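Consortium newsletter contribution from the modelling node. Members have asked for a concrete example of what our holo predictions look like. Here is one, prepared for the 5-O-phosphono-beta-D-ribofuranosylamine complex that several groups have been discussing at recent meetings.
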Amino acid sequence: MLRIAVFVSGRGSNLQAILNAIPNDLRNVEISVVLSNKADCPAFDRVREYQIPTYSISYTHKEGYITFLELPAILKELKIDLIVLAGFLKKIPDEVIDLYQNKIINIHPALLPSFGGKGMYGMNVHNEVFNASAQVSGATVHFVDKIYDNGKIIAQQCVDISNVKNPDEIAERVLKIEHKLLPFVIKKFSENKIVLRNNRVYLLEE
Ligand code: GRF
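And here is the predicted structure:
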């Protein structure tokens, strides 16, 4: 069983996509904990019906929040194998990245290495893609290192956006891809089918 910790900041549709895949493709995966930087994160509502613990997490001491300093002990206690950032807007501290090297993945709503970096999240990304007049966009799942959106790319899927009229249409098309791509990568990880070779990531076939 692959035990994952999912970090969220918003509506949690990617978290929902993982939850939906668990009875099917992800039968060997368990969401062991969900964490958010917001105590009232809408994504938390999605796990209420399951017995999945949730934590609100902050850099500083705040009522009702754990701090990032406490995170390594919690992840260890829960025997977390993989950290999944599914729309998490805060930076994971370097100490945690050192502890979970190549065991933290992030979903980004564009084709990295373009349209990434600090401040490039949510509609900011789709606005830039639209204003650049990019003709394709897509989703990227990548390993997380100490620099925003910089880690090795694990999987990408693109979508034609040549006929979109606004950034919202891009967001809609990309989100559909995200909901397939993230569970796909988690499945590959659970099967040990993600390998680093020649300084690149390879996904092994069945
Ligand atoms: C997604 O577009 C994800 O790629 C980005 O933030 C958004 C989160 O959406 N990092 P949701 O909370 O999963 O619905």
